[in-house]
Design brief:
117 residues, alpha+beta, OB fold (Dihydrolipoamide Acetyltransferase, E2P), two-stranded antiparallel sheet, 3 helices
Length: 117
């Protein structure tokens, strides 16, 4: 009978730890320290400043500005959000290449998007 409370505590601890893995960051942090965040899931909150997509193509592009900078997001879910929409975007930090220690094509590969009304 003693094992049940330990199991519950272990599961609760695992949930708390996994919830801390996805963190909200500022775009300026991503651009200043891309290696620190590379291939990690982060959340960015901001306003869509540009968006574009092509019908029947399974991805879209849009830029999010959080007040500290802009980052491009590659979306895979549904329609592309329109300009001026407030969003919370969780995604994996990726780059096209690195040249001379500088990140080129830094972007988020969207995992989840929430529209803020």
């Amino acid at each position: 009978m003693v094992k049940t409370p330990r199991l519950v505590l272990a599961l609760l601890g695992a949930l708390l730890i996994s919830g801390c893995a996805v963190r909200s960051v500022h775009v300026a942090q991503l651009k200043d320290q891309p290696a620190r965040f590379y291939n990690k899931s982060v959340t960015v909150k901001g306003v869509v400043t540009r968006s574009w997509g092509v019908p029947l193509v399974p991805f879209q592009f849009y830029s999010v500005d959080d007040g500290t900078g802009q980052i491009t997001v590659i979306g895979h879910s549904g329609r592309v959000p329109s300009t001026g929409t407030r969003v919370n975007v969780r995604g994996r930090v990726q780059e096209v290449a690195a040249f001379g220690g500088q990140s080129i094509g830094l972007h988020l590969d969207e995992e989840n998007r929430k529209i803020k009304y």
